[in-house]
Specification:
heterodimer, A: alpha+beta, Alpha-Beta Plaits, 2 domains, 4-stranded mixed beta sheet, 3-stranded antiparallel beta sheet, 11 strands, elongated, B: mainly alpha, Fumarate Reductase Cytochrome B subunit, 9 helices
Amino acid sequence: MALQSLDIVRRSATTLPEPQARGAHTGEVAKLIDVTKCIGCKACQVACMEWNDLRDEIGTCTGHYDNPADLSDQTWTLMRFAEYENPKGDLEWLIRKDGCMHCADPGCLKACPAPGAIVQYANGIVDFHEENCIGCGYCITGCPFNIPRISKKDRKAYKCTLCSDRVSVGLEPACVKTCPTGAIVFGTKDDMKQHAAERIEDLKSRGFEHAGLYDPAGVGGTHVMYVLHHADQPHLYSALPDKPAISAAVGLWKGAAKPLALLAILATALAGFLHYIGIGPNETDERDEEKARRELEKTS
Amino acid sequence: MSEPKRGEIERYAPATRINHWIVAIAFVLVALSGLALFHPALFWLTSLFGGGAWTRILHPFLALVMIIAFVLLAAKVWADNFMREDDWTWLERFREVARNREEDVPEVGRYNAGQKLVFWLIVICLVLLLLTGIVMWRAYFTAYFPIEFVRFASVVHAISAVVLICGIVVHIYAAIWVKGSIRAMTRGTVTQGWAFKHHRAWLRALNRTAAPPRK
């Protein structure tokens, strides 16, 4: 949704700046998910469904707690459960609320070819405007976190909006509102970092020496951050990328290749034009016809 | 079709000409729809196809029309496009050819070295575009490939498309530059003088076999 109160700082497939006089002077927003406080109740999933009017198909048991089994156009956030046996031999149940990370440097937005189908608001939220989406799936190709999903019904891409509609009127996202343990909190990014720092200090005092904040620099930081007990090994949390970044291939495809390609095509056409003007056409005249006639008589 | 007029030689039979123009029209549509989704400055081209989503839907199907038609065309001209020793000499003296001085270059058969290389460039690009295009075809195939491969295929698709478009620009310009060439693909005939000047070995070969074979 285009929101009057949220100015757009970045817009997919757009070469000139968007209106952005109204900045986020109170700071960019962030959602902080404290994985160490999560009990895996899935209330956040339910709140997301309710607020966004989403109903995924009722699937079948896949033998683990993840339900549904994967993100979809109807499931924008999903608890992922991982069983980790730590070096001491104890089992740790690592539960991560998966969903869009709202990267400061979004791979989806970089890859999107449809103007305005993906936008980034001044407050940092990355939002899909499905009315502009053409269904190519380049956002999936661009995303370092494997988040966007194309609907089989309308062929548009969907993902977590960070409840941009709620945030724009001063409310917190639905998942934050509902979380019974306070594992999900929302505020300015600076406040969330500060809150995370306190949590990490507490965790360290309890023996989680590698506790830390997941705010990966490879994508310019994210507007959804995690507090992890094992921040040195993000992959333990259902394959959370250790060092996410926009892939070099996507960077080339959506970066240097674009101007260079147009330049190459124009240069080739220009070379032809200059050749025609400078040297001119290669014409056949009556002398060639005469030579041809003699050649044909000679051999036949 | 009526027989070629006096002083003219048939270069392309009607079926070949029609085949060529199917490839050509499909190519223009595929290139325009592809460029529309490649560079934001060209997104307006999606209007030609009924909007962004229609462009995304049509591009791969138009591409299949182009590929199938090209395979049929290539089957007809394949054998005449293998590089021979003389072709490399011709290439070395291309500067002369570019200055419209063809007197001292080796005699050319049905196709010159430039045409042959453009042919192979098209073949290579189309193979790459087809393979990577299947990987990028989200509606049916992308889910079967690992994400890093999809990313790699997307770059290769873009690069080979640009190389192909540049190759076709060269192909079109060559037809404009060498007067008397376009009619070979529109009317089907060229003048004897044209054949003598640009494809002398081909003219001689035709003359040796009294009834020129139709291509």
